[in-house]
Specification:
Layout (H helix, E strand, L loop, with lengths): L7 H13 L4 H14 L3 E5 L10 E9 L2 E12 L9 H10 L13 E7 L5 H8 L6 E4 L1 H10 L12 H10 E4 L2 E4 L5 E5 L1 H6 L2 E2 L2 H6 L6 E6 L2 E6 L6 E2 L3 H6 L12 E8 L2 E6 L3
Parallel strand pairs: 3-4, 4-5, 10-14
Antiparallel strand pairs: 1-2, 2-3, 6-7, 8-13, 9-12, 10-11, 13-14
Length: 281
């Protein structure tokens, strides 16, 4: 389903309505438990209201690294703020300070990421503080991003269908059905959405039909990703390519603030090169 782009006025209206849904910060934290679960996080726990030392929720995410499955721990601070009450740099520093040790004073392992979620916005100083130390990353999610996630994951929004004749006409002009595969006039073989989980795991999942057409007995392939050619290594199972993080950052799928932006890519193979291009939105 296509989502019509919202105006800034509409987004601000929804942020204010979201803020008003919660009478207290605690209610916002309880909401985030379900919110993070919907986004695919596991073992989401809302901590005790008193004595949480700045950590409001904890959760994990299973991804992939060069050694296989990797589990990352997330420590979340939640702030139910009105839009006029911006998150300051000191609050980001405080979060980084409290997550160095657990409640018993034991140093946490290095495999964790701090997350700061608010219904308002971050000052420029807060965003700079969040990104100043790559060894202690802080993912920031503001009210606008919260609304965008809620729309994408169908949390709290009801959608009224709007018919689009131009989209129907575009399907008949730009594509032709071949068996069970849709082939565009530009000879792209298949489209596949790069999900937020793919980006989080730093992998490029290979569509099945592309895998069947790839040369055998290779583990490294020339991939042209939206015009940039790079050699990418395929994992042993043949499911995905690694080494894709820099390209995700270059084309906005992974932002400097650590936000994952899902996009649709179209695939084809030309002279044994795998061509992957962003679809026009």
């Amino acid at each position: 389903m296509a989502i019509i782009e919202l105006t800034n006025e509409e987004i601000n209206k929804y942020i204010d309505e979201l803020y008003s849904c919660f009478r207290t910060g605690r209610e916002f934290e309880v909401f985030l438990n379900s919110f993070l679960t919907k986004l695919g996080f596991e073992e989401v726990v809302t901590t005790q209201y008193v004595g949480d030392k700045g950590i409001d929720l904890t959760c994990i995410k299973r991804g992939f690294d060069n050694n296989g499955i990797d589990t990352i721990n997330y420590y979340v601070q939640a702030k139910r703020y009105a839009r006029s009450n911006k998150v300051q740099a000191k609050e980001i520093r405080d979060l980084k300070g409290t997550t160095k040790r657990d409640r018993n004073g034991i140093i946490l392992n290095s495999n964790y990421v701090n997350v700061f979620i608010t219904t308002s916005i971050f000052t420029n100083g807060a965003l700079m503080e969040a990104n100043d130390n790559p060894n202690m990353p802080v993912i920031t999610i503001d009210g606008k991003q919260l609304i965008q996630f809620c729309i994408e994951y169908n949390i709290g929004f009801n959608f009224k269908p709007v018919f689009s004749p131009k989209d129907i006409i575009a399907l008949t002009q730009n594509e032709r059905a071949v068996g069970t595969i849709t082939v565009q006039q530009q000879d792209y073989i298949v489209e596949r959405k790069i999900t937020q989980n793919d980006i989080r795991a730093k992998i490029l999942v290979i569509p099945r039909i592309i895998k069947e057409l790839m040369p055998d007995n290779k583990d490294t392939y020339n991939v042209v990703f939206n015009g940039i050619e790079k050699q990418l290594k395929m994992d042993k199972s043949g499911r995905y390519f690694g080494g894709i993080t820099d390209l995700y950052k270059t084309f906005g799928l992974l932002t400097n603030e650590g936000v994952f932006v899902s996009k649709t890519m179209k695939w084809k193979i030309v002279n044994e090169k795998i061509i992957v291009d962003l679809c026009e939105e």
